[in-house]
Amino acid sequence: MGDSQTSLDKTIVGIAKDQTVDFVFSLLFYFF
User: Fold this and answer.
1) What is the C-alpha to C-alpha distance for residues 11 and 16, in angstroms, rounded to an integer?
2) Could you report the per-residue pLDDT of 1-32, keeping only the tens digit for each?
3) CA nearest neighbour of 11 among 3, 30, 28, 26
4) Whole-model pTM above 0.85?
């Protein structure tokens, strides 16, 4: 169960990072 919890956390972090990157690029394209 510990392994699945760790993998789940990694997945959530990965998704959050992807969304953050998309958001940053959206701001860059919006301003420039």
Assistant:
1) 9
2) 556 677 878 888 888 899 999 999 999 888 77
3) 3
4) no
Q: What is the token pair recorded at 13?
A: 């972090």
Q: Of 29, 32, 31, nearest to 21 (Cα)?
A: 29
CB contact burial 1-32 (16+ within 10 A = b; e otherwise): eeeeeeeeeeeeeeeeeeeeeeeeeeeeeeee
Concatenating the DSSP letter of every residue in the chain gives: -HHHHHHHHHHHHHHHHHHHHHHHHHHHHHH-
